[in-house]
Amino acid sequence: MPLPPDFEKRLWDAADQLWTNSTLKPHEYSMPVLALVFLKYADHRFAQAERELGSGRRRGAVGKDDYHALGVLYVPEQARFSRLLKLPEGADIGKALNDAMKAIEAENDEVKGVLPRTYGSFETTTLKELLKLFNTIPDDVEGDVFGRIYEYFLGAFAPRTLQKGGEFYTPYSVVRLIVEILEPYHGTIYDPACGSGGMFVQSANFIAEHRKTPADEISIYGIEKIAETYKLAKMNLAVHGLASDIKSELNSYYDDPHDAAGRFDFVMANPPFNQNAVDRERIKDDKKRYPFGMPTTDNANYLWIQLFYSALKKDKGRAGFVMANSAADARGSELEIRKQLIGAGAVDVMVSLTSNLFYTVTLPVTLWFLDRGKAKTDRKDKILFIDARHHFRQVDRAHREVTAEQVELLANIVRLYRGEEPEKAHGSAKLLKEYFPKGRYVDVAGLCKVATRKEVEAQGFSLNPGRYVGVAERAVEDFDFKEKLEELNEQLEVLNAEARELEARIAANVTAVLEA
Hints:
Layout: H1 7-20, H2 26-54, H3 64-69, H4 81-85, H5 93-107, H6 124-134, H7 145-157, H8 159-165, H9 172-182, E1 187-191, H10 198-209, H11 214-217, E2 218-224, H12 227-239, E3 245-248, E4 266-269, H13 280-283, H14 301-310, E5 318-324, H15 333-343, E6 347-352, E7 365-371, E8 382-387, E9 393-394, E10 400-401, H16 404-418, H17 429-435, E11 448-452, H18 453-458, H19 466-469, H20 481-515
Helix pairs in contact: 1-6, 1-7, 2-7, 2-12, 9-10, 9-16
């Protein structure tokens, strides 16, 4: 089931109390709050395992290793959530929570050095209210809980700073769509910008839905540059029973701790967009990870794309990642890299999404899907383009999401394109019948189009779905004028930014010619 109504807002209100009643800065107290969510969820899974292991066994026969064998963290008595809730009046809750986190780390190598010990900085009444608040989380909550809550923190605390830095977290529905299209049933999964670990968690959920045990099917590898976010990811994976090899405080442009080239079955990521100031001199000779060369523009998008491509196994690896819309049409040296990528036959599916899916970034994005095994199929010279900009649910005035039914529909378009059976567990059967009445893939105006490599070349090697799918006939809609105006203004901002970049390139070229 979903989170309780207004849960994120209530969490924010509680966090606001922490801000008021502590000397910590906003970015310093997100971790203690999230660690309480972690503790509640870990405690719930431990209680389930305790019941399972207790049935049919004599008293005292169950040990820590039995819980670990089930992929569950061992939660010692002093760290049980129910015990912390029932602490007597006047008890030092801050110390009790610090001791609880220390006790969990002592029993579980997977979270050693990850959990916070800073609860002594907070008012006892605030901690008591937080424990009560997190006790309202339902036992069967779905989605990347930590990522979603942390995402709300990002949006509430420092949107301008985060937008400038390009660092934000991926909404549940977007992660789910990437996973559904990639279909990571078995193998190694890599995310070199792994954030809170949502890609890994949803891969595990996908496997579980297909009646397999995630811990037996996938091996998880990642890099997360920010130490605090790394801890969040480790907590997230631990409570889902997933072991991982995630490296922290490294920079994926320069560091390669996993010897990634040609190693992974699946790569999925939401990297920071449009980063500049990458030291290309340090990486220009790294042909293994950057096989198509260095872009001359001061923008890292095509460095990320090459990192994803090169990390895939050469005969079968698949990648799915979020990218700024502008990358699909970028010119100059980025165009030359894109030509090579298309020429290698690796680009499989491109999906454009609507704006306002992220808390901290309003602009629309594009999902890229690469498949290095495609050359052995009848799709080797084809690319599927999907325009999903009209497939969303308006959550509130500023936020949208792709529903489970819509995610399944979009993934089913890809399944039909690949010659696979569609799935209907999330209610997409009606939409599927509407768009594909004969149960097989066909181009649908305004929604999807399979283009040949020659058609892509004729479009200047653009990978923008809007160039190919056309426009569906639409009835006149009753719409919110202000919302529509904001959406058009966002699109205008993107075009203006691209125009300024082009203008700067022209000016640089003219200067170079005059100085020659």
